């Protein structure tokens, strides 16, 4: 699939590919299934791309079902637990709900065959159908080498107060403008497009990474989903992330003190954003910047090639290790089944 469309190595969903490559050469891998605590199934569900390079989530459920069918027919391990000791990386907008629009994702729900598996996903929102208990939230993929190539001297003054580049309206998918980003991005533009403290635009300049390193605050508003690569970029470039996504569950909360390094703004408070940020004490800003300067903070957000200590790969392994030992109910008596193989939309049941 990667050979057919290598673009899926560079987009924000690429963590599933790099996690696979990391595990192939990792010291935690065993070729003896009796020794294994976990089984990992690489399924490249974000590798089916449109001409514009965006993943098509519509075929993903069929791809995933076909993969599960294959591993359950070929080996005995899935059937012993109905997948409860298996994990999958599902980096779509709404994880294993496999749709980029929230309403439709909620309607679909998590693919029924993944109900017992552990999901490693970028999507995280409290009390949401598409986040089940026990999932591991990860950062989206941002290319480490590319970011490294754009580093500027760390003592460069931060002369931009608030920075954002991206869509405010998605007219193609949301012509009326109230659904995309739950209106938060539209509110940003309408309230602050003429504010001299806000450097915000839809244009993506060649100096994007350098500009983030010159900014004090980087806006990380929700889009179709609550998460975005801006979160990774902000942390890596030492720009205080301003997180505008109600009830977001952030990656690796045990390794990254989000409350201490970021600023959380409720979506309804976007019109007051200038007042909130300008009234923040300078000591608080400097403390957040000092914390962001810690290399371990940046490391946890990246999927480097080759892997390095305390990077995102190792944070995922830590998350899996914390779920061990498996509880008793994981292993099923012979012949017992918990999954309904015919549940879900009829379109998902077609072979891939």
From TrEMBL:
Residue intervals passing through the bilayer: none
Listed under GO cellular component are: Golgi membrane
Keyword Transmembrane on entry: yes
Exostosin GT47 domain mapped to chain residues: 6-280
Molecular functions per Gene Ontology: glycosyltransferase activity
Q: Main location per UniProt?
A: Golgi
* Protein localization: Golgi apparatus membrane
Keywords attached to this entry: Glycosyltransferase, Golgi apparatus, Signal-anchor, Transferase, Transmembrane
UniProt keyword annotation of Hydrolase present: no
Tell me the domain of life.
Eukaryota
Membrane-topology descriptor: Single-pass type II membrane protein
Annotated family:
Belongs to the glycosyltransferase 47 family.
Protein name in the entry: Exostosin GT47 domain-containing protein
Natural source organism: Brachypodium distachyon (Purple false brome)
Q: Which gene encodes it?
A: LOC100843114
């Amino acid at each position: 699939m990667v050979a057919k469309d290598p673009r899926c190595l560079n987009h924000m969903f690429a963590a599933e590919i790099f996690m696979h490559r990391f595990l192939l050469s990792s010291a935690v891998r065993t070729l003896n299934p009796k020794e294994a605590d976990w089984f990992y199934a690489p399924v490249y569900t974000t590798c089916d791309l449109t001409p514009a390079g965006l993943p098509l989530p519509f075929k993903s459920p069929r791809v995933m079902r076909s993969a599960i069918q294959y591993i359950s027919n070929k080996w005995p391990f899935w059937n012993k637990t109905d997948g409860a000791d298996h994990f999958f990386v599902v980096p779509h907008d709404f994880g294993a709900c496999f749709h980029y629009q929230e309403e439709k994702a909620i309607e679909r729900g998590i693919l029924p065959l993944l109900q017992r598996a552990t999901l490693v996903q970028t999507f995280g929102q409290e009390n949401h159908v598409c986040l089940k208990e026990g999932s591991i939230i990860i950062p989206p993929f941002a290319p480490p080498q590319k970011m490294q190539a754009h580093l500027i001297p760390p003592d460069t003054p931060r002369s931009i107060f608030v920075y954002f580049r991206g869509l405010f309206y998605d007219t193609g998918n949301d012509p009326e403008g109230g659904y995309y980003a739950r209106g938060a991005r539209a509110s940003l533009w309408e309230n602050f497009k003429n504010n001299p403290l806000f450097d915000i635009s839809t244009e993506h300049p060649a100096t994007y990474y350098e500009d983030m390193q010159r900014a004090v605050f980087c806006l990380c508003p929700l889009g179709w989903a609550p998460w975005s690569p801006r979160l990774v970029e902000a942390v890596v470039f030492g720009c205080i992330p301003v997180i505008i996504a109600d009830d977001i569950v952030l990656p690796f909360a045990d390794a990254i003190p989000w409350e201490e390094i970021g600023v959380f703004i409720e979506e309804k408070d976007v019109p007051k954003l200038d007042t909130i940020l300008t009234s923040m004490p300078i000591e608080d800003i400097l403390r957040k910047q000092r914390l962001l300067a810690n290399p371990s903070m940046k490391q946890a957000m990246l999927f480097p090639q080759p892997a390095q200590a305390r990077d995102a790969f190792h944070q995922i392994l830590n998350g899996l290790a914390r779920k061990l030992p498996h509880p008793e109910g994981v292993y099923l008596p012979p012949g017992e089944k918990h999954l309904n193989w015919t549940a879900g939309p009829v379109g998902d049941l077609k072979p891939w």
